[in-house]
Amino acid sequence: MDERRVVKISKYLAKHLRHRPERIGLTLSPEGWADVPELLAAASRHGFALTRSELEHVVEANDKKRYELDGDRIRAVQGHSIPVELNLPAQAPPEFLYHGTVRRSVDAILREGLLPMGRHAVHLSPDLETALRVGARRGRPVVLTVGSGRMAADGHEFRVSANGVWLADSVPPEYLRE
């Protein structure tokens, strides 16, 4: 499949599985699952026809593993701005996690901490390379180190999504360093 088509389908899925399912008349389960035949029919009705094989290819080929397919169900694995309960168990994080951002955001983050900003959770990377890629999406990246081991010891919970993104409700500024 043409790479432009893959990107277009992935962005379409993100919009409707993470943010605006109602826009195409799609209903998600409380856990964020959509019925695949319903998704394909809704997309077609709204001028974005795609096949099951294209959908499967995008789920499999997505480098960030943003979606999971389970039989006739599909969902985004994190990044929702709509209410969903992914049912991810709390897990002990590594001693340090990382957050990629851009310079213009650093002062506010160090003052106020990391906040979900319209999402359900703060997204944290398990390694510097991933955090650099995340930060580079909006300009020259800056990576903040999160004292996640200390946070967990102080009672904060962490979860990890199916694609390895660590999630926290927030990260208070005392656990951050540039």
Helix content: 25-40%
Average pLDDT for all residues? 95
Q: How is the largest sheet built, in terms of strand order?
A: 1-3-2
- The secondary-structure class comes to alpha+beta
| Weakly predicted, low-confidence segments | none
Radius of gyration: 17 Å
What does the overall shape look like?
Answer: elongated
Count of all domains: 2
CATH topology of the largest domain: ADP-ribosylation fold
Q: What's the tally of helices?
A: 6
Write down the CATH class of the largest domain.
Alpha Beta
| SSE string | HEHHEEEHEHEHEEE
Beta-strand level of the residues, as a percent range? 15-25%
Main β sheet profile: 3 strands, antiparallel
* Counted beta strands: 9
CATH architecture of the largest domain: Alpha-Beta Barrel
Distance between the termini: 41 Å
Concise structural overview:
By secondary structure, the protein is an alpha+beta fold. It contains 6 helices and 9 strands; from the N terminus they run αβααβββαβαβαβββ.
Brief descriptors of the model:
ADP-ribosylation fold, 2 domains, 35% helix, 9 strands, alpha+beta, 178 residues
